[in-house]
């Protein structure tokens, strides 16, 4: 199956252009949060405060950012569960930095992507890394038409938080692209994913 056919071309489109995920959109109504609508924390934020975010906002992870807004880690509900299982109920007043020091050594790390990455590349990451979410960051790669100053500024912003993409975001997008017709419900999207992933692997091999 060709990956550039009508049913699969969207898999090679940039994530942000497809509207997959939630992206930072500063709002005058929320001047206290430069990453609105995303919730974030720093290494100095307490675990208790993050748990409050989980409960109040109905989320399961928050990016940990530094003073420049660059992503340095991710704190998830599973990290809180680990503390509870250890009987460390009183440790909810620990800072995130202290809590992360107690994190299991088998933590896979924060998986990131950029807004310019394709949906096919996200499928590949989900399959290979068995992840439930990706943090979208500034890639730092200069874009066509940018001046040297703009390119330099973009490079300095490399790693800054731009958004979050969950597995449910991806699934919702795919379901929305299912063409219900003579070909059978779901048949084309599944084959499209496999074809695009195969093409991605082929393109990654040096010629």
UniProtKB/TrEMBL annotation:
Domain of life: Eukaryota
Protein's name according to its UniProt entry: Uncharacterized protein
């Amino acid at each position: 199956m060709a990956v550039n056919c009508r049913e699969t071309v969207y898999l090679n489109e940039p994530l942000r252009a497809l509207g997959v995920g939630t992206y930072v959109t500063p709002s005058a109504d929320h001047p206290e949060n430069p990453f609105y609508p995303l919730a974030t924390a720093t290494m100095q934020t307490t675990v208790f405060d993050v748990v409050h975010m989980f409960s109040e906002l109905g989320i399961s992870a928050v990016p940990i950012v530094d003073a420049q807004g660059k992503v340095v880690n991710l704190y998830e509900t599973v990290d809180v569960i680990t503390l509870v299982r250890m009987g460390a109920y009183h440790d909810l007043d620990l800072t995130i930095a202290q809590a992360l020091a107690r994190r299991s050594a088998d933590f896979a790390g924060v998986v990131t992507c950029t807004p310019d990455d394709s949906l096919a590349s996200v499928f590949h990451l989900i399959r290979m890394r068995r992840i439930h979410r990706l943090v979208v960051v500034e890639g730092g790669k200069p874009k066509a038409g940018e001046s040297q100053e703009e390119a330099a500024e973009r490079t300095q912003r490399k790693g800054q938080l731009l958004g979050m993409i969950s597995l449910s975001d991806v699934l919702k997008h795919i379901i929305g692209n299912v063409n219900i017709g003579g070909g059978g419900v779901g048949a084309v999207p599944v084959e499209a994913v496999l074809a695009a992933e195969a093409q991605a692997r082929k393109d990654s091999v040096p010629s």
